[in-house]
């Protein structure tokens, strides 16, 4: 804790919060993310259209008073599909991040704390996974297991956890010889208890930052794989598979409402998450001034 001039004490959490709130881009990112999440969650309250309701009398209509973002090639309301598609894209990003954190923190903690042959084996596994181009492996696995939200989450989570594992390992290597770790060992605590109670709480700051960026990577990966037709299955909408319309040159030139809103929301969400991640990194860094 730091001491104010009037002898009041300010906690490190409060200092970090103040530094974060001073970062205008990070605050703007939080607001945008909250707005997009709330709009997606409240989709049934915002629009009366469903994702599968077709109107053959209004196929590929431009935006008007009835359909504020027009209709697609089957007469479905684009705005409704955009809201419901946000649920899927955000879910894939968050769920895949959770898979990455669970595997990455576990493997990184084991490698960093125990070292030796255990560390070498885990790092060789990480090297093998990371030496192959991500999209080549992701596309290959998706083609084998098939498209779908569940498969997409598993693919992203199991192929991208090495990034978090390397961060966790590096942080543990830098703190595992500290006095409080040695004292815990001298008290007879088990390795599991030391890792859970003394190691992981002290490395959560970089893990938290990496987790936010993992959500952005998950959303981008979902969009890429869905655009290729091996991500979220149609007619279930996602921001990624709504971009499939952009594969047609005629649609690109004349029917902007079919692809531009989804692309804009992907860019907006990913940028906002990156701004928040940068803000958290600066706020949690004790070397930066409050």
UniProtKB/TrEMBL annotation:
Gene3D superfamilies the record matches: MetI-like (1.10.3720.10)
Record-linked InterPro entries: BP-dependent_transpt_permease (IPR050366), MetI-like (IPR000515), MetI-like_sf (IPR035906), Oligopeptide_permease_AppC (IPR053523), OppC_N (IPR025966)
Cellular compartment(s): Cell membrane
Top-level taxonomic group: Bacteria
Major location category of this protein: membrane
GO cellular component: plasma membrane
Residues passing through the membrane, by range: 25-46, 88-113, 125-145, 207-232, 256-277
SUPFAM superfamilies recorded: MetI-like (SSF161098)
Topological type in the membrane: Multi-pass membrane protein
Keywords recorded for this protein, A-Z: Cell membrane, Membrane, Transmembrane, Transmembrane helix, Transport
Matching Pfam families: BPD_transp_1 (PF00528), OppC_N (PF12911)
A single BP term in Gene Ontology: transmembrane transport
Segments forming domain ABC transmembrane type-1: 86-277
Family: Belongs to the binding-protein-dependent transport system permease family.
Protein's name according to its UniProt entry: ABC transporter permease
